[in-house]
Amino acid sequence: MNRRVVITGIGVVAPDAIGTKNLWTLLTEGRTATRLIRTFDPSPFRSRIAAAVDFDPVREGLTGAEAGRLDRAAQFALVAAREALADSGLVPDPDGAHRLGVSVGNAVGCTQRLEGEYRKLSDDGARWLVDHTRGHPNLYDFFVPSSLAAEIAWLVGAEGPATVVSAGCTSGVDSLGYACDLIREGTADVMIAGGTDAPIAPITVACFDAIKATSPRNDAPEEASRPFDRTRNGFVLAEGAAILVLEELESARRRGARVYAEIAGFASRSNAYHMTGLRSDGAEMAAAITAALDEARMAPSEIDYVNAHGTATKQNDRHETAAFKRSLGAHAYDVPISSIKSMIGHSLGAVGAIEVAATALAIENDVVPPTANLREADPELDLDYVPLTAREQRVDRAVTVASGFGGFQSAMVLAGVEERAA
Length: 422
Known about the structure:
The protein is of the alpha/beta class. It is 34% helix and 18% strand.
């Protein structure tokens, strides 16, 4: 079955950028969204910064009841899904509800509400035995991440497959890859898919502090995320969501839908090596890129842009550089590469989907977003990591990659539909 999958709608909730147009403006202007954490006292922690969303659920269209019963990650997902659906112009048909599905990537579940409930029920950890009668009526929904997919399914009336993909920091792109598979095999015609996470909470900050993965550059938050820079010292924790409408191409054409890009290839691999460590040769990420290119039937030399994982940790940036050289060969030195995490931080299970959205926008606008804060080149990282300023150039085919704790590595190939037809 040769069913091609395209993106017809995009919805985004990102730091300093609620809405797809706002995200693209932030990225192309090279602005950064990192600030000192203000939602709780971060003073006990090594890293006291994050890229947070200025988000009022009621202002963004949710009811007071929805705001009261939903975790922040679910709120992000619903707002992004509503934008994506409106952007696509798709009006779900109740008679075809079984052909409409949902796939949501998420890494840490409903962290904020779960931590808040535990603190409330245990008197900030003082009580070993808690009084369950004091718990929130929706506590079970906070505990079960599948509630995230259920909320979107209820919103759009989807009666097809509905699932949560949780594979750490590759969850956002993996959820889109899974959605593509369902459309290609004929199980669904339309998928509402993407990722959401709201991990800015003391427990998450403490976990990343323990392994020194996050940047301690607290005196200059806006400059803290420095992917591929010689002075990089860790990633910046963030939150957000991106939800996309994916459709079978011919169906999208019949209804006259706007098409951002085709998802031409996807692959994921594991290094089976270490929970947080990465092999220096980048072999497993390279294998994912090669497999995704093979599925797309593209040569490495056809790629016009690479949206890197680019966390700004020492080992990730070395690992990625090696992976690009291994998978793209000599073309790795010619293709522009950038990391949007330099501007919006690392929102764990959401960021892969945000990066797919940004890659589709790069194809639509023929612009490569920059890597903010990349001022001192690292001699070990000798590829074209686009610094500071967006670059206008033709972008017809692009790769976006993701890497996650546990050894997960994923790659997705996007292309303009006209270019694929040629």
